[in-house]
Amino acid sequence: MTKVYPKAVIPALVSSDKQRFFTESSIAGRNFNPVVLTVWKKSLLFNCDGFTVFDTKGNLVFRVDNYAAANKAEIVLMDASVHSLLTIRRKRLSLTDSWLVYEGETTTNPRFTVTKHVNFLNAKSLAYVSTTGSPKNRNKNNVAYEIKGSYSKRCCVMYDDKRRRIAELKRKEAVRGVAFGGDVFRLVVQSENDSAVAMAIVVLLDQMFGGSSKRLSS
Question: Which domain of life is it from (predicted)?
Answer without folding.
Answer: Eukaryota
